[in-house]
Write a structure and sequence with these properties.
39% helix; homodimer; alpha/beta; 17% strand
């Protein structure tokens, strides 16, 4: 990433984010000055990636508070609850969204006895903390994960779990960055990740920026590469992890995990503790977002299939925990049995 | 397919073919009047699919003979040998190309004692026979294969192994057509098949034409669908089959086969005997075509990845025979052990 831009940050009077729908051909930042703009940016994937969505939700509530003309704390809390509902309705799968909203609302409620001004300041500080802690967590995750990456490794990744998917540094790509920073040679195979090409557009862009060698492949080439012995391990992010270690992530992740299993390769997931949903005993309970058919059969206005076809467009799939070699968190590497290992992670402050 | 157009046919003075690069948005036939045009059409995938490439090669040599001003049979045979080399250089993987060229040259050499005119007529008749026999083989294949398709089946297919990939009716899609003609309900899941989207563009188009229900998915969704129990079997075509039953087919086929194995689903291959290369003991000997990176990182002129990335673009992969449940041929359904079963197939006249 160019050092002068961040995936998402507070810009005085606005939530500033990179409009990721325009990458890799255009790097443009967008200042969201209303709740509706923030919600639209999340829904349209201008900002995406579970931790980045969480940060966007945090800044979104801080923005609502900042712009509010409420004269009482009670009135402002009411506005925040409405805003929470708007943001919670944007995307159903990534749990970091709900986690961040709840953390922000807890912060707000803790100020119920204080002043409106104090509440506004507390919410902005909390949103800043969510983003700052996310980047710090990713850097720790990188340290732990880098030990799993052999020198000279060919690493397959899917979608984008990089700086663009987080408040900074990245989860899966953070591990790769940390391995490279530790002096290891790493070559990345980036699944292009249909339908929205986050691998080709975003992961490849991040790797090129940092001079980490990257080869883009179509999603259906990964099996062929593994068969040829050209991939050493698979490493992805996560949108939600159930208490038993089942992992929801970008559609196609499950296929990568099955392929890794068939070829005897490690399949690693890198995600902060905020991605774990302890309220769900297994991944079958994770809601899977279905998105517009247009994402599959139109490419920037060009129709790719005839009229009259049905289209199925689930945005995520669930990889059962028995296909996951290890989950890399900011508190260390968790291995099976996951129910015990994940439960032992400490809740952040 | 509309009844007034054919994938490929002889048009008096030209090889007439559907320009498949324009589908599904435009149905346009192209009259190739020179060898170079036929070779370009094969190389650029205006005509594609192993059996259709074979038919194109046959008509291509008939065209060369027709247009030749050679005064002697020996001279014409020399021209044909040069043309054979040009056509053989277009694409390396589909064996039907080489099979058809050799069959045409045998036909030509059999006329070595006759007249130039007689040779020209014989070559056109042979090319017509290759196309006619291909369509007839597909119809027989359909009869045999239809018995493997349960009523109400959800069938996953990859790429296009339909009427557009053959001289008519199709191999894998021919089996689906035959099942539907036998009164069965069939629903097709069409992998869009990156990078060139033959599934979304061509398979979906064929199915819509014939009112067979079809749902387009991105390649990386197939595993998720199998996991949910929404697919009953996988059925694909082939570009070359080794003597041991290893199958080269469009990139991504191997991944479908691994997924089918993991989920305990049948994985069927439909292909005529002309697709079997008995000179190769296993699939590792099959040459895999690598095509331009532009196919992966450009979509009709829109760049999908940043400058500076490497791109890998193998057009095919090889599925080992132990992942293949059965091979459907025009002489019946062959099951393991394939070396014996395939060897028992009779050479066409």
């Amino acid at each position: 990433m160019p050092s002068n831009v961040k995936t998402i940050e507070w810009a005085g009077n606005a939530v500033r984010l990179i409009d990721q729908t325009l990458l890799p051909t255009e790097l443009k930042v967008l200042d969201c000055t209303t709740l509706e703009q923030v919600a639209e940016a999340i829904q349209r994937l201008r900002v995406r990636g579970a931790p980045a969505i969480g940060a966007a939700a945090g800044f979104g509530l801080a923005l609502v508070a900042r712009r509010s003309e409420a004269q009482s704390v009670a009135s402002l809390l009411g506005e925040l609850e409405q805003a929470q509902a708007v943001l919670a309705a944007t995307r159903p799968t990534a749990v970091n969204l709900f986690w961040a909203l709840e953390r922000m609302m807890r912060c707000a409620q803790a100020q119920a006895e204080g002043s409106v001004q104090r509440l506004k300041e507390a919410l902005l500080a909390e949103a800043e903390a969510i983003a700052r802690e996310d980047e710090a967590a990713n850097r720790r995750m990188g340290q732990y994960g880098a030990e799993l990456i052999p020198d000279g490794a060919n690493v397959l990744t899917h979608c984008n779990a990089g700086a663009l998917a987080t408040a900074g540094y990245g989860t899966a790509l953070g591990v790769i960055r940390a391995a490279v920073e530790a002096g290891k040679k790493v070559h990345v195979y980036a699944d292009e990740t249909r339908p929205l090409l986050q691998g080709a557009r975003l992961t490849a862009w991040e790797m090129v920026q940092e001079h980490i060698p990257v080869t883009v492949i179509t999603d259906n080439m990964a099996g062929h590469l593994m068969q040829q012995g050209r991939i050493d391990l698979a490493l992805v992010g996560a949108d939600r992890i159930a208490a038993n270690g089942d992992v929801a992530n970008k559609i196609g992740t499950y296929t990568v995990a099955v392929l890794a299993k068939h070829h005897g390769l490690p399949f690693y997931v890198a995600a902060p503790r905020s991605t774990i949903d302890f309220s769900l005993t297994s991944g079958t309970e994770i809601p899977i977002e279905e998105r517009s058919p247009d994402e599959v059969v139109n490419f920037r206005g060009v129709r790719t299939a005839p009229a009259g076809v049905r289209v199925y467009n689930p945005a995520f799939d669930v990889t059962p925990h028995d296909l996951v070699t290890a989950i890399i968190t900011e508190q260390g590497v968790v291995r099976p049995p996951y129910t015990e290992g994940l439960a032992a992670l400490e809740e952040p402050q």
